[in-house]
Amino acid sequence: MCGIVGAIAGRDVVPLLVDGLKRLEYRGYDSSGIAVVNGGVRRVRRTGRVAEMEAAALAEGVHADMGIGHTRWATHGGVTESNAHPHISGGIALVHNGIIENHEQQRERLQALGYAFESQTDTEVIAHLIDHHLKSGGGLLRALQAAVSELRGAYALAVVSRDEPNRMVVARMGCPLLVGLGEGENFVASDVSAIVQSTRRVIFLEEGDTAELTRDGVQVFGVERQPVEREVHVSDVSLASLELGPYSHFMQKEIHEQPRAIADTIEAVMDEAGFVPELFGADAAEVLADVSSVQILACGTSYYAGLTARYWIEGIAGLPCSVEIASEYRYRDAVADPRQLIVTISQSGETLDTMEALKYAKSLGQERTLSICNVPESAIPRASRLVHYTRAGAEIGVASTKAFTTQLVALFSLTCTLARLRGRLDEATEARHLDALRRLPGDIQHALNLEPQVRAWADRFASKHHALFLGRGVHYPIALEGALKLKEISYIHAEAYPAGELKHGPLALVDAAMPVVVIAPNDSLLEKVKSNIQEVRARGGEMYVFADADAGFGPSEGVHVIRTPRHVGVLSPIVHVIPVQMLAYHAALARGTDVDKPRNLAKSVTVE
Ligand code: G6P
Description:
single chain; binds 6-O-phosphono-alpha-D-glucopyranose; alpha/beta; globular; 608 residues; 25 strands; 8-stranded antiparallel β-sheet; 7-stranded antiparallel β-sheet
């Protein structure tokens, strides 16, 4: 969701701010703005794309060597220019990511003090609060620190002032914010992609931190306002992963990057030559040793990765496993079990509901926590005892693809590690699983080669209003993921069912206008799936079947078949998700929707 970038330098920062905002576009937004200090504060804001705001800034000839920028995803107040950030009060300008819970009380108080509000946002409250505290004369940093101590909620903030043109101050609580260290210039950003063209040396601010940036230095202050030293990290995010290259869309690029992303993710397993606890962190042997069950918590596509893993964890490791949507778990009375392993799955590592579910589990005394995440040093892994990083590289398309398949690889490694610790993985089986993992990038490539056939199907889907996805067993979550992908980016209403549930309701929807997609791998449930296909055919439904080449499945009237590669055994869901990703991508393309930035959706959901 909202993105922040800021720079203080000995050069014009406007191009840096605009470029940074463009790189943050993927997080999801509906308006943007910049404010710079050059004599006074100058601000440019626009609804719509960053490019429109950029054009306005150029037309107005805005230049300065210090400024802040923001992409806003509306929460409090509609998508209007006056609600867009930066917000101004007196001589200060401010950008904010997060939600202030006590904004109404603060608004009343500030109105009583004579402040007039120009927006419906919670953010404007912070701007006025800082201006109010500035009047005590302690300077910008003190005013920011005093203001945040009166706020409840989540925030990442960057503030500049007309009266202190040589410094920028920032604060973080509950939302990601990092400081970038350059040579004679410094930066602030929501994520490293916004500043990576200027520097890779970053400090991840911690909860409750504030910091002051000048051209020549950065000083971070902890919760007690004492100066603190924070570790400097060197980001390895590649510029290539942030750029489209020869592709038309990031989603297309990311679908095709999956063989590489999976090869990178299994590298650690291959280096260790086996499923060892160390894959999950230094004290993993102790944490994983005698877990009684596994509770997986996640949202969206990551939740479907969890649903898939449940079949593995129960079937291979023999451990009870529940999977729950994070926003549900966090608000129910869960029964605590200190020996239960809590696994959070998150591409971004900053999804608020997943973070809050993790905090809730910890508050119940659940100490054994593991995060599977794609973004190093993000909030969720930092709050977890064990971490396994997927190595998908930056994922920019809102609809998750390579993050999902690498999450599945990580969850499979976790399953095998738990199985081994529990004496349920003999050497021969472990060798077989390792071999299957090693072959997986090649198997994925075979599935990618089906693209021309999938595209032909997608062209037919483009005119449909609804679609049904069916799967059974470990492939039921793949049907769910297929339906999610299709609705997210093509806006075709799609639902997924376990094929056996068909006759308990969805069969009533089936007619010639409703395409029915079936995931039909050559596994023990194949005959059951074939019967379910007959049930649909008998009602005149048009079937689109993804069947393994060795499944003995041929096309017939009303039954279209794409033969996926031979059945790859236990890792089959990772291969079968590839064609449904491509189906959604090409259906969206045929319908002319915004594939990488579907309406109303955001990549990083940092609000409830
Ligand atoms: C958003 C994204 C989805 C993603 C979900 C969970 O809804 O659009 O692609 O699956 O958040 O995100 P996470 O970063 O926690 O995996």
